[in-house]
Amino acid sequence: MLVKKLFSFLVCSTFALSVQSQLSAVDYKDEKFISFKASKTFIVKTGNEKFDSELLQAFKDSWKLTPYDVISNEEFDKKISDKSSSFILPVTIETKNITQSYHYLAFFNGGKKSLKAYDYEDMIAYCPINHFLNEGNNLDCGYRVKNMLESMCQTIDLIQKKNIKGNPLNIAKALQEIYNSKSKNIKNRTLLLPDYILGKLTKADIAGLYPHRFEICTQEKIEQVIKAKSTEYYYYQPGITLNKSMFVFDPSNGEVVYFTYQMMGLNIKKKDIEELVETISGKN
Fold it and tell me: How far is Cα 50 from Cα 231, in angstroms, rounded to an integer?
């Protein structure tokens, strides 16, 4: 299929394979980031009306980092080699094992002949798609893409303001510390947990572990609170692709107030809720 072929690239970095799954970005003094700040960003149309319209509106509402425009798939093919351009689109990052891939909404710079020439560390900022639970198609994240973009904007801003440096793992750990310093606020609102995380983990399990207000809800409820910019809720958001990330987002502005990750895992388990509770309480 065109979308799979167009929006895929190959991981060539062994380091990237072993440590990354989390919302992150490159060192702001890295040449890639400097080039990104000087670029014009292009939103690559996917052909999915909901996803494309939600992402464009999110840019109109919150994007201030670079000038931007919208281009088609065909225009993207011609423009990808332009070093003065950057792009945002959902990507599938293929590894040498064809059964293992990462799935992200990502920013990256132009300058190479095709997506196949890019590797993991070419991404400027990214947010995992919840591939193995409710977003089996990369475009299924359209209902929350507004918060995804907002969170990436905030990540880029944090890296600059906090002067965060180092390799991707060090950057991720520094961001995790910042995000989780805000986790204590989660108990002040109702935490929405999507019903698709239930299975071996039951509502009774959660009630026995999570001592604060929570609600098991549909994806549609989360979409509604994002659109309403609600300040009554936070929502729990897995990002399970080749690795397993777990976030809590503020639907009003996309702020990440909790983040953790594991090298593997396809389901949310009791220990994941326990870790969240410990972080909220300040024990982690």
Answer: 24
Contact 257, 183 (CB under 8 A): yes
Using the structure block, give the residue that is written with the tokens 């040498």. 96
Domain limits, the chain: 2-167, 178-281
- Residue 266 is predicted with a pLDDT of 85
pTM of the model: 0.90
pLDDT digits (tens, 9 = 90+) for 178-193: 999 999 999 999 999 9
Contact 107, 81 (CB under 8 A): no
Residues in contact with 9: Cβ distance below 8 Å, sequence separation at least 6, in sequence order: 91, 93, 94, 115, 116, 117, 118, 119, 122
Closest by alpha carbon to 278, among 180, 177, 205, 172?
Answer: 180
The average pLDDT across 147-160 equals: 91
Please tell me the predicted confidence (pLDDT) of residue 8: 52
Cα separation, 27 vs 12, in Å, equals 20
